[in-house]
Amino acid sequence: MSKYRWTICALVFFATTVNYLDRAVISLLKPYLETEFNWNSGDYANIEIAFKVAYSLGMLGAGRLIDTLGTKMGYALSTFLWSLAAMGHAFVSSTFGFSVARAFLGVTEAGNFPAAIKTTAEWFPQKERALATGIFNSGSNVGAIIAPLTVPLIAETIGWKWAFIITGAFGFVWLLLWFIYYEVPAKQARLTKAEFDYIHSDVDDLAAASITTQPKVSWFKLLTFRQTWAFVVGKFLTDPVWWFYLFWLPDFLNKQYGLKGTDVAFPVAAVYILSSIGSVGGGWIPLNFMKHGMPAFKARKTSMLLIALCVFPIVFAQYLGQINMWLAVLVIGIAAAAHQAWSANIFTTVSDMFPKRAVASVTGIGGMAGGLGGILLTALVQKQMFVYYESINQLDKAYFIMFLICGGAYLLAWVLMHFLAPRMKQISLD
């Protein structure tokens, strides 16, 4: 049987890699930008908040836009705009300018995950969606791996502005491949009938594959379902943890262990290599449970509970780091891997619980909630706490509090999601 669906997965993986490469650049350029613009932790937190506010609002609109335009044009438009935004960072000359550039990047990058999850729902049967999601979601780790291996080197050799320009340009390469290879299954001439039938093997009426002809669903109607709120709560509590890793890990290594410039490359890359393994592994776990006869909802819930437990050891990161820095890197890497495994499953719960025509909209609503959680964590905890503890030269206490938050967030999310959607039944929108 042809397996063209995995070609589509590779395209989404590439887009997600570029998406995270572009957003990770600023964290690695932070030392250079601090020197040039006299930033403190509060200035950097404000720029981070600008990105998250725009990303959160963009998520809500992006999900609706993707459901309206379809995956092909919606994904292309989002990638085109965020690539322009990424390159635009090179042309600003003030702290306020960076806030504006980050906001534009945030609102445009918001289209990636609604489009990616909708693409996966269109191209994969239910039993393979977590694995496909884990594979494409590992692109976020690959982007975060490429960034520390390249961005400091570019900044050291030809300047920090070129780091933004070069990384932003990759999105245009993806656009070319997207238009060459992508089309929805019902219109894809390269797809065999056998694979088309396999993709829709868990749909009673194959006519439902033509999702573009079905009516759209309002946000208000979607918010009346407990299943929507289960996804919203899960994203609200756990997305901020990933934001913390992405924006503050290089700073943690710098402040705790004195690593600067290219010195942070290998420790940061190691964390995201582990994350990539976790992303794919997170998709494999429920698939393996289902192959052994476990119902899909139970396989998903069991997997997410096991994953949540794997995050908790991060509370010991600093203690282990006193023995050896690489032990801290290892435990943070395991926690980051668990987050990506969690993401592979929580994203798939949307297509488990909702018809395909609502997947991008629900993903957008949950993505907005995750962004809002990130904003609150940064504004109410990180910004105030980091500035305070930095002023009294006890920044290690701020990081310890953050690691405690990271360790408990997933278990709390799992409990609340289980309460809201015990069996993750798919709803009817008719």
From TrEMBL:
Membrane topology designation: Multi-pass membrane protein
Gene Ontology MF terms in the entry: hexuronate transmembrane transporter activity
Keyword Iron part of the UniProt annotation: no
Transmembrane segments: 47-66, 73-92, 162-181, 229-249, 269-290, 302-320, 326-347, 359-380, 400-421
SUPFAM superfamilies: MFS general substrate transporter
Listed Gene3D superfamilies: MFS general substrate transporter like domains
Protein keywords: Membrane, Transmembrane, Transmembrane helix
Protein origin, superkingdom: Bacteria
Limits of the Major facilitator superfamily (MFS) profile domain: 8-425
Subcellular locations according to the entry: Membrane
Pfam families: MFS_1 (PF07690)
A GO term from the CC aspect: membrane
PROSITE patterns named among the record's database cross-references: MFS
PANTHER family: HEXURONATE TRANSPORTER, SOLUTE CARRIER FAMILY 17
Identification of the protein by name: Major facilitator superfamily MFS_1
